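Hello,

I think I submitted the S-adenosylmethionine job twice by accident. Can you confirm which output corresponds to this input? Input:
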Amino acid sequence: MNTWSHTTVLLNEAVDALVTDPQGQYVDATFGRGGHACLLLQRLAPAGRLLAYDKDPEALAEAARIADARFSIRHQGFAAIGELPPGSVAGVLMDLGISSPQIDNPARGFSFRADGPLDMRMDPTRGQSAAEWLAVADQGQIAEVIREYGEERFAGAIAKAIVSRRQERGPVAGTAELAELVAGAVKTREPGQNPATRTFQAVRIFVNAELEELEQALTASLHVLQPGGRLVVISFHSLEDRIVKQFIARHAKAVVDRRAPFAEPAPALLRALARVRPGAAEVAANPRARSAIMRVAERTDVPVPASLHQRREPPPGRPGGGGARGGGGAGGGAGAGMTRLSIVLLVAVIVSALYLVRVQYDSRRLFTELHRAVAEAHLLDTEHSRLQVEKRAEATSLRVEKLAQGKLAMRTVTPAITEYVNAPAALPAASAASTPGGRP
Ligand SMILES: C[S@@+](CC[C@H](N)C(=O)[O-])C[C@H]1O[C@@H](n2cnc3c(N)ncnc32)[C@H](O)[C@@H]1O
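Support: Only one job matched these inputs. Its output is below.
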C-alpha cells in the first residue's frame, strides 16, 4: 500500500448523472482509488450492485478494503464489460486516464518530474514497458506514436534523438533521461508546460493501448446498458474527448443505411444528455481537474444492430495487452473501418463496370438492328417504284388500244388477221383467178 492519494474529479456530478435506479447493477470501469465507487455504493439500495474494473494491481489492493457484499472488482481492462449479459447494466462510469498515485509514484514511470524506471504500464504484470518498447521500436514508429498520441510538432526530432542515443549508449531506461532527450530536441517551449509533457502522454497512451480500449468499451456499453441506462465518461485530453464526443454524436442520431438509402433510417441508440466541466472552485482545489470534460448519454430502447456486434480480437504485436491495433500508428478501429469501406467501394466499382459493359453491348445490338431495318425499307421502296412504273405502262397501252378501237374504228388484231397479213405471198394466184384486174 502506498501513501499517494487521489482526489476524485466531478464526484457528485458523475454519480448524480449515473444513478437512475438504486436497485440496478452499475459498472465503475475505472476504480482507481474508489472515490466514485464509494459514493455510488452510498446511493444504491440493498438490491443494487456495483461491479468495478481496474488494470492496476494497486487499485485492486485498495478495493479489497471495501467490505460491501454489493461490491466486486475485476482485474481486467474495461473493454471486458462487453462480456456482461446484454441489457443487464443500469449505468457505466469511465473516469479515464491515470490516477494521482500512478503519476506521483516515480516507481511507476509515468512522470517526468521525478526520476524512475521508464515503465508507464497501468498493469505492470503484463505487456511491454515503455523502456522495452523504446529499446526495439524503429524511428518511424516512435515518431508516429509521438506525433499522433502527443500531437507533438517535434515528433521526428524526438524519435531521432531517442534512436541515436540508443545506438550510442544503449536504450533509454529512466524517465529523467527521456525527459532530458526530449527537452534537447524540442525547439520551442509552450509557456508553463514541460517540453516532455506531450511525449510522455503519447508513450503512455500507446503502451496501455488506451484509445483502442476506450473505443471497444464504448461500443460494448451499447450492448450491456439497459434502456434508460446511463453512460458517463470523464476525459482529460482532447484525443479521448474527441472519441467520446464522436461516439455519442454518431449513436445519438438516426442512421441511414447507405446500401438501402430509401429505407427508414435506423433509430438512435443513445440520447446525448450533458457535457459538464468542473467549476472554478473544484479546479482551484484540484488543478488536475482543469482539463476534465464529462459527457453523459442515455441508452434508448432500440436494439443494437447486427453491424455493431463486437468481436474481441487479441491485440497483435502490441505492448500492454489491451489494445486492438498493432504497429505504431494511431487511429485505432479506423483500419478495420477503412478495409470494410474499401471492399464496399470495390464491389460498387465492379458492379458499375459490369453494368456499363452490358449497356454498351445492348446499344451495339440495337444499332445493328436499326441498320438492317433501314436497308430493308430501302429495298421495299425500290420495288414499290418499279411496280408503279409497270402499272403506269400497262395503263397507257390499254388507253391506246381503246383509242384505236373507238376513234379510228380499228379492229383488234386477231390471230386470223395476223395469219392473213403474214401470208400474202400465197394469195396472188388464187386472187388472180377469182379477181380480174388483180385487185382483191
Ligand atoms: C482517473 S483514475 C480513476 C479514479 C477513480 N474514479 C476514483 O475516484 O478514485 C483511472 C483509473 O482507471 C484505470 N484504468 C485506466 N484505463 C483502464 C482500462 N482500459 N481498463 C481498466 N482500468 C483502467 C487506471 O489504472 C486508474 O486506476
